[in-house]
Please model this.
Amino acid sequence: MDMTNAHEGDCPPPVDFPGRDKLVAALDAAVTCGDEHAVTAALRSALCRLIRDRDVQLPACVHEPIADHYARRELYRSPRHGYSVVAMTWGPGQGTPVHDHSGLWCVEGVWDGELEIVQYELLERDGERYRFRAAGGMRAGPGSAGSLIPPHEYHLIRNASPDAVAVSLHIYQAPMQCCSKFAPLTGEWYVRESATLAVDAAA
Model:
């Protein structure tokens, strides 16, 4: 989905929070750096700085988990560049299945808490059956950031803590409104399911 020509009227109203203009200025500068590799590298660097910047304080709602699912709250959508900024709130034990990013690049940074991230390599496909192999995992804490560039876009995220909430900030190339998720079958085989991604209220 190409949002580079989106008009301002197509964008939802931005959420106000301390340091928002500073965050947006840094992201705007990063997304003009060149190709997708240069852009995501610049965004990773910017996000690591912004997470540590005391001038930037995400709205209070992003620190409030939702009991039955991890929360996705869109904080900003660029009317000029088309990227989307989504804060995710992970209650204890909440996480995603293996999923893709619908062909969009993404940069993800941990704002608070700790997240477990496992990347997957697609080995082969047979119709709606996909064979994946875990290609490395990590525990990411505050101030760390990583990126996904298709076709290397398969991963899962979870908050492994039994009692702490985690918050992450995701910069998507364009609003990610759907994706494919993959349910395990047997061994390394998974079956693909289409998923619509809901957005929770950011207020």
